[in-house]
């Protein structure tokens, strides 16, 4: 009653043993594919971790770097500016990690929150009554009177260029893990299980426990079993090319490190622009939002302070040069894995599974 290991000679197998063999080949094949995938998956997971750690470190530095602008140059609004700065960097982080948000909405939301502070603390420092309605009116007016000139839009453009590649790379790495996990657990068809039993275990039914499959026979069986997996070859090659492109984009002129550390300077230029145009802005705001309460002694609004260049930026960029090296190492490794899915049958037939250095091997029917 044997279904797979049918042979003219006497046999020491039963139908139940054949079923056990089918379970064994399914388990073994999953384990061998997992072993092949391990190094590749380890590299991608490692790079995701490195990328996220470096990115969080960059964000923390850039946030502190930006906050220090308010503490050193715009002290009257430093405390109130802390929350909008924190929100801006949280939004940037969420964008890179794939959230449904845009760089433009994050930056413009920040400048909407910043304008009431700049207006009431720097342009008109005598304002005492900053009610919720008046603050909201200032926020809405910002969109119409554009107090920060071209600087807010420039900041959107610069950040969008550099953060886009980082966002795409982050999503692409996650996709790579998903593909590998899916192929690891690809179910074997019944025909494949039977072919594998015939190749690996049918010799046992005749007492030939040391004989192994012929290399050509193994390749035919494995290619048949893994036809659906090897069909990924073209897409995998395309995927590696995309990773290479994104890595080059990140390393190009729109570098993530430079863009994030440049946020401080962009905000400073925007605030200076608003202060220089203070009288015109006040006249427009008074028409739209009305006149707020003032202190009797109005403080001078000519409090434009130039910010000293922060020397630590250079050190910071040098410290993150290692991130560029890690990107390069990673992409070189991934390029070597270009043929991963095309050569999976050859790699599974390598090693102990087949007979290489002997004149005899199993061809599915007999010892040859």
TrEMBL record:
Membrane topology: Lipid-anchor; GPI-anchor
Biological processes, Gene Ontology terms: cell migration; positive regulation of canonical Wnt signaling pathway; regulation of protein localization to membrane
One Pfam family this sequence matches: Glypican
InterPro entries: Glypican, Glypican_CS
Gene Ontology CC annotations of this record: cell surface; extracellular region; plasma membrane; side of membrane
Family: Belongs to the glypican family.
Function summary: Cell surface proteoglycan.
The protein's name: GPC5 protein
Organism expressing this protein natively: Corythaeola cristata
């Amino acid at each position: 009653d044997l279904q797979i290991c049918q042979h003219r000679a006497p046999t020491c197998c039963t139908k139940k043993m054949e079923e056990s063999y089918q379970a064994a080949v399914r388990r073994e094949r999953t384990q061998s594919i997992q072993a092949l995938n391990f190094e590749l998956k380890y590299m991608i997971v490692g790079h995701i971790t490195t990328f996220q750690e470096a990115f969080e470190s960059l964000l923390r530095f850039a946030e502190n770097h930006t906050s220090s602008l308010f503490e050193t140059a715009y002290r009257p609004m430093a405390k109130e500016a802390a929350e909008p700065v924190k929100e801006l960097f949280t939004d940037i982080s969420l964008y890179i990690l794939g959230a449904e948000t845009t760089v433009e909405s994050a930056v413009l939301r920040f400048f909407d929150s910043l304008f009431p502070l700049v207006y009431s603390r720097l342009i008109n420092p005598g304002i005492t009554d900053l009610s919720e309605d008046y603050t909201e009116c200032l926020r809405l007016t910002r969109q119409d009177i554009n107090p920060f000139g071209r600087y807010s839009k420039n900041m959107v453009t610069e950040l969008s260029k550099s953060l886009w590649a980082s966002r795409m790379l982050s999503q692409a790495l996650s996709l790579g893990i998903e593909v590998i996990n899916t192929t690891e657990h690809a179910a074997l068809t019944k025909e494949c299980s039977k072919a594998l039993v015939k190749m690996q275990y049918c010799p046992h039914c005749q007492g030939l426990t040391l004989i192994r499959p012929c290399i050509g026979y193994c390749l035919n069986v494995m290619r048949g079993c893994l036809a659906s997996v090897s069909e990924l070859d073209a897409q995998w090659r395309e995927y590696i090319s995309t990773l290479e492109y994104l890595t080059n984009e990140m390393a190009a002129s729109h570098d993530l490190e430079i863009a994030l550390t440049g946020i401080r300077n962009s905000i400073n230029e925007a605030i200076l622009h608003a202060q220089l145009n203070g009288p015109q802005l006040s006249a427009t705001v008074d028409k739209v939002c009305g006149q707020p309460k003032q202190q009797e002694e109005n403080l001078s609004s000519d409090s434009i302070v130039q910010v000293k260049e922060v020397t630590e930026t250079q050190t910071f960029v040098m410290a993150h040069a290692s991130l560029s090296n890690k990107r390069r190492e990673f992409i070189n490794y991934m390029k070597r894995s270009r043929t991963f899915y095309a050569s999976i049958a050859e790699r599974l037939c390598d090693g102990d599974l087949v007979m290489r250095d002997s004149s005899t091997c199993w061809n599915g029917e007999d010892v040859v």
